[in-house]
Design goal:
The structure holds two protein chains of two kinds. Chain A has six helices and three strands. By secondary structure, chain A is α+β, with helices and mostly antiparallel strands. Chain B has 13 helices and no strands. The chains are: A alpha+beta, B mainly alpha.
């Protein structure tokens, strides 16, 4: 179930980790893992179709950079359009998660815990 | 060769098999990226103390199924770019390539079949030749830049290409039958060819420029600016619209010239054949883009 939930949000996660600067595919996967505390389980190979989709849509750009320890690496970086898209996705996610929490009664429980 | 190298090669082969429709350079890029990712995963696992074989199996498990990922990548390649990115600015290099490619191709192809035409274009009819080169370049540029990364027919690109074809037909007929038609009205028209075609070429180029400047070909129209879904739908229909416009232009040229040289019956048949071809072409374009 977690994978299903994650599937549609992989582009947003990629855009978010690229906000800190350009990264190659493996580093993006590690950064998502680090930021999520290893909670988000996914097949790392699915990162590449998502990266290519974002690149095609002009939300990220890719360029090959020389790598001292091996062959050149394709490094992805956020474009201004990508930054704008990330803001939009973040707002949509925030609204969505709040709505789901409200329906599940989690927000009132959280508030209740906070007031106690 | 170590077993892990064999496993990795087999994994990459499976992935590669799904990428048949992609250009070789893109395939090589994907395979290189995947290899690098898997290598890095294995190095990390080895550093955690895993045996080489176990590291491979764990990395492969975490990476996912090569066939499914390959299918997804191929599907992604086929997918049209998002509508918001249509018409994003192109670099000077991209513009130059898009302009030069059809020009070079047309000179090569035509030069191969009819060297005399290239010769005549540059010596006797250099104005016409120059116009044709500019039009071919603009058509190629517009065809790609109208939809960055994709390449779509729009009315303006179809109009440009129709002019290109019309000018080639014109030049063909002029060089083939020109000597037999001295003193006729055909010769008078041919002599005034640039003044007949120049306004059309200019109109086509301005139209194309206007299209490629907007984020969507018809975005300047209020209806589409306010309704992106309608705009996208129209954009999806653009191959049909483009083909019909190209067909109309081509038919006008063919009918007029065909009637002049072969009589009305044959010219009509040519048009019917052209309509059938354009219809099949539009269907093919739609199946590729929808």
């Amino acid at each position: 179930m977690q994978r299903e939930l994650l599937k549609g949000n992989v582009p947003a996660l990629i855009l978010a980790v690229l906000q800190g600067g350009g990264l190659h595919g493996y580093a993006i996967a590690r950064e998502i893992e680090r930021r999520s505390g290893g909670i988000l389980e996914w097949k790392e190979g699915t990162l590449y179709p998502a990266l290519h989709a974002l690149e095609k849509d002009g939300l990220i750009v890719a360029q090959w950079e020389p790598n001292e320890r091996g062959p050149s690496r394709k490094v992805y970086a956020l474009t201004p359009a990508g930054e704008a898209d990330l803001k939009r996705r973040s707002a949509v996610w925030s609204q969505f998660s709040r709505a789901v929490s409200d329906v599940l009664g989690l927000s009132s429980r959280e508030n209740h815990h906070e007031t106690r | 060769m170590k077993p892990v190298d064999i496993y990795l090669a087999a994994f990459l082969d499976t992935l590669d098999a799904q990428l048949n429709d992609l250009p070789p350079a893109r395939r090589a890029e994907i395979l290189g990226e995947t290899r690098e990712h898997l290598d890095a995963m294995m190095v990390a696992r080895r550093a955690d103390g895993m045996a080489e074989n176990d590291a491979w199996h764990s990395a492969r498990q975490a990476f996912g199924d090569a066939e499914a990922i390959g299918r997804e990548l191929a599907r992604e390649w086929e997918r049209a770019p998002r509508v918001e990115t249509v018409g994003t600015p192109l670099s000077k290099r991209e513009k130059l390539i898009l302009f030069a490619r059809p020009v070079a191709l047309s000179i090569l192809v035509y030069g191969f079949f009819m060297p005399s035409m290239i010769n005549a274009s540059f010596k006797s009819y250099w104005v016409n030749g120059l116009l044709a080169v500019i039009t071919f370049g603009c058509a190629g540029y517009g065809f790609k830049s109208g939809r960055r990364g994709g390449g779509k027919w729009t009315p303006a690109t179809a109009f440009n290409w129709a002019l290109c074809i019309l000018s080639l037909l014109w030049a063909n007929l002029h060089l083939t039958f020109g000597s037999q038609l001295r003193g006729t009205s055909w010769e008078t028209i041919s002599q005034n060819y640039p003044s007949v075609m120049l306004p059309l070429f200019l109109a086509a180029s301005f139209w194309l420029k206007r299209e490629t400047n907007t984020t969507l070909p018809w975005r300047t129209m209020p209806r589409y600016a306010q309704n992106p879904i309608a705009a996208e739908e129209t954009f999806r229909l653009s191959p049909k619209i483009g083909a019909v416009m190209g067909l109309a232009m081509g038919c006008m040229g063919n009918l007029w010239m065909g009637w002049k040289f072969f009589g009305f019956g044959l010219a009509g048949m040519l048009c019917v054949g052209e309509i059938a071809l354009a219809y099949l072409y539009a269907r093919w374009l739609n199946s590729k883009t929808s």
